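1st attempt posting a full record on here, be nice pls
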Amino acid sequence: MGAVPGVVRAIEHVGITVPDIEEASAFLEKAFGAEVIYDMKPDPGASQVDSALDSQSTLGIRPGALWKASRMLRLGEGPSIELFEYSDEQQARAAIASDIGIQHFAVYVDDMAAARQRVIDAGGRALAGPSLLPGLESGEGNMWLYTLAPWGSLIELVSFPSPQPYENGTPLRRWRPET
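the predicted structure (as tokens):
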């Protein structure tokens, strides 16, 4: 079917809640060269009660949680990343791969070893790997590696410079940077 003309064109941004927006921004800037586009904060003239009720109705957050700030960052050629910081006594830890819901985002990299080291140097952690992409994603130099941001979110580093076997069965293609 493909894109829905006039309705859906692409993923525009990914939202991530972080414990400290300044620290998360510094990590994304150092690890991936992210650039801050703009910041948003609650209207200082609005009451906390009105702001909380508005956030509950528009964002579905828990009663008592308060939005503190948002920041939009540009990350290479793909979607932007929007960071959120909330004050919430019941805030859960970052999702892991087996949790329901969005559990990671992937960054396409050209040099896996250099990207891995940048994540580590920025305060993140690399999990086991890198590993060769398997099955329908395999090919010469095609690999992936999960990393953890300092606040626990999974970030996959992925590179697939070679054609992948799935391409033989469909005209559809995953996004890859233009060379």
